[in-house]
Specification:
CATH class: Alpha Beta
Helix content: 40-55%
Number of domains: 1
Largest sheet: 5 strands, parallel
Length: 157
């Protein structure tokens, strides 16, 4: 199974880029992993929040294909421990799924069409984090899940 992190916009903070690259490098030992970015929209000053979300939705929903299962990283999603996330990942890997695509939306969140099309949501926390930090936290949690599944000493519980 291939795991893809689909994000709206680029990661720009140097510390975030460095951390993401570190965990992505470590992930290669366990699972095929890649990061895909949907470019930031241009000329959004004259657009409403709803219009921005609608345009982003078109690009996100282009990934909604039979070979992909999309999972939204969303504050209203399922909260779970790292151990439970690892078990959830194991079930996904055992299911024969070709590609698991985790989606981080834009600054305004997701358009209702995305919520309607994508049923699974995971929350990293009830707290609000910058999109830059969410990317780091997610990649680290994915790495942590892989080490848990492989019985390695990274995670302590």
């Amino acid at each position: 199974m291939k795991v893809i992190l689909l994000q709206v916009g680029k990661t720009t903070d140097k510390y975030a880029i460095q951390a993401i690259e570190e965990y992505a490098s470590r992930l290669k030992h366990y699972v095929s992993f890649q990061i895909e970015s949907i470019p930031d929209l241009k000329s959004t000053k004259n657009l409403t929040e709803a219009q921005v979300k609608a345009r982003e939705a078109e690009q996100i929903l282009a990934w909604h294909k039979p070979e992909n299962q999309l999972v939204l990283l969303d504050e209203r999603g399922l909260e779970q421990s790292s151990m439970h996330f690892a078990q959830w990942m194991q079930k996904k890997m055992n299911s024969g799924l070709r590609q698991l695509v985790f989606v981080i939306g834009g600054p305004y969140g997701f358009d209702q069409r995305v919520y309607d099309a994508v049923k699974e949501r995971i929350s990293l926390s009830k707290m609000t984090f910058s999109h830059q930090m969410v990317r780091v936290f997610f990649v680290e949690q994915l790495y942590r899940a892989m080490t848990i599944l492989n019985g390695e000493p990274y995670h302590h519980e």
